[in-house]
Specification:
Znf_DskA_TraR, binds zinc ion, zinc, about 120 residues, disordered C terminus, metal-binding, mainly alpha, zinc-finger, Zinc finger DksA/TraR C4-type domain-containing protein
Amino acid sequence: MTYPSTSIATALHEQLESQYAQHIARLTTLTCRPRKGAEDEAAIAAARHAIAETARALQRMADGSYGRCERCKLPVPDAQLRHRPTARACLRCRLAPASLPRLCTATTAAPSRSGR
Ligand SMILES: [Zn+2]
């Protein structure tokens, strides 16, 4: 099964491609001018992080793992992906400390997405 639902997959892909281009342009702008200190360095680091996160999301789309929580392996809800297309974990896992047992498990049957 493909996640997220195909109805939003195309829109999310376009959004990620657009974000990627914007982050690259921002990094180019930041690195092609004289740096003014720690604030510029922080902005450059943030742009690089955003590029990496977006690239990883696009890679997950290419390899078919996009939209699945990296911790519990259940689908990340479409609404969460619309809000944050680079999301790698469902909200329950994101909010749970890594030291605690997973709130949901891969052995739990994935909710049916039919009828959406
Ligand atoms: Zn999860």
